[in-house]
Design a protein that fits this description.
Order of helices and strands: EHEHEHEEHEHEHEHEHEHEEEHHHEEH
Number of strands: 15
Number of domains: 2
Distance between the termini: 18 Å
Structural class: alpha/beta
CATH architecture of the largest domain: 3-Layer(aba) Sandwich
Length: 371
């Protein structure tokens, strides 16, 4: 199969879909790889490294998109890339369609086959292609709120771990999945007081046993959330409903009860955000203030640490890419039910329930299509 790796064009997105070592594996399996010139520079991978791995370097994005049978990306197609979409192309990337009706319709109109990293499941029902970036984003979220709590950055002037005789920061984390767990690990390691909330009590029981430090676990409900955020120096949104919009757990009305100069980092922004006042921002302009509360809503947080993120992403995605490229799409989807759950759009049809529900579109289950 001919596989294309274009350069990411989203604001300050420095990750690359596959590092050179992963390209070498594809070449070793007799596939051809087209890489746009400079695609890996943001992650400190040179064109020469890709050439040494066996890739063909092309000067323009259009050449990569048009020459490939399957395009591998990190982020969803940007409007400038919509013209490259076509009905005989497989697109394998993070799509997060529930957060963008325009993108959903662009994919449907083009007829492209869209596989979404974030809805692929393993045999245990976990999300193996979302997990590595969730790990990165969770750890980053704590670093980010620690930075923005500093007075020069717009915060209350709070040191995360405090000092002897002075209270540490109170960090509220909404969601105890991968993002929330990693955010809690770093916050606790910095000495913060952490309130970790989730609807899954078994998960909270487990984390209360294995996480050290000043940790309180709370059942996630409106009363507990409101009570916790009133004293929070920082709130980290870490809610995920696979493929669907995140629910608004913190409403605009609650915001007025939060401390002036407190910080919200909503990692769920890719799926619409779990804070009602959250909207997507960029690394170029990452924050804004509403009702005295600083909001951080960068939708591609791991893009700030692209080399780490690119290696972590490829570790997870490469086996699936090899499966699709080696077996062909149809056989790969039939052989792997978890991979099949990654199919979000197919030749003009929505094939994932949560996306269809979000935009009131008809859904066509995979088994009803000619796959």
């Amino acid at each position: 199969m001919i596989i294309g790796i274009p350069k990411e064009i989203k604001d300050n997105e420095n990750r690359v879909a596959l590092p050179p070592h992963a390209v070498r594996e594809l070449i070793r399996h007799q596939h051809q790889v087209l890489v746009e010139r400079g695609a890996g520079v943001g992650s400190s991978f040179s064109d020469d490294e890709y050439i040494a791995a066996g890739a063909t370097i092309l000067d323009h994005a259009a050449e990569v998109w048009q020459g490939a049978q399957m395009v591998i990306k990190v982020k969803e197609p940007q409007p400038a890339e919509y013209p490259y979409l076509r009905d005989d192309l497989i697109l394998f990337t993070y799509l997060h369609l529930a957060a963008s009706e325009d993108l959903t319709h662009a994919l449907l109109d083009s007829g492209v086959i869209g596989l979404a990293y974030e809805t692929v499941e393993d045999r245990q029902g976990r999300l193996p292609l979302l997990q590595p970036m969730s790990e990165v984003a969770g750890r980053m979220a704590t670093q980010i709120v620690a930075h923005y709590l500093e007075k020069p950055s717009g915060g209350r002037g709070i040191l995360m771990g405090g000092v002897p005789g002075v209270r540490p920061a109170h960090v509220v984390i909404l969601g105890a999945g991968t993002v929330g767990t990693h955010a809690a690990q770093v916050a606790l390691g910095m000495g913060a007081r952490v309130s970790l909330m989730d609807i899954n009590l078994d998960r909270l029981r487990y984390l209360s046993e294995v996480l050290p430090g000043r940790l309180t676990t709370l059942s996630s409900n409106v009363s507990n959330i409101h009570e916790a955020i009133v004293t929070a120096d920082a709130v980290i949104g870490a809610v995920l409903i696979p493929g669907a919009r995140a629910p608004h757990l913190v409403t605009r009305a609650m915001l007025g009860d939060m401390l002036a100069g407190s910080v919200i980092a909503d990692v769920a922004v890719d799926q619409g955000g779990c804070v009602e006042t959250t909207h997507a921002t960029t690394h170029s302009n990452p924050t804004y203030v509403i009702d005295g509360v600083l909001h951080y809503g960068v939708a591609n947080m791991p893009g700030a640490v692209p080399r780490t993120s690119s290696f972590a992403l490829a570790n997870a995605t490469l086996p699936y890419i090899l499966k699709v490229a080696g077996m062909g799409l149809h056989d790969a989807l039939r052989a792997d039910e978890g991979l099949a759950k990654g199919l979000n759009v197919y030749h003009g049809y929505v094939t994932y329930d949560a996306v269809a529900d979000t935009f009131d579109l008809a859904v066509r289950p995979m088994e009803t299509l000619a796959i």
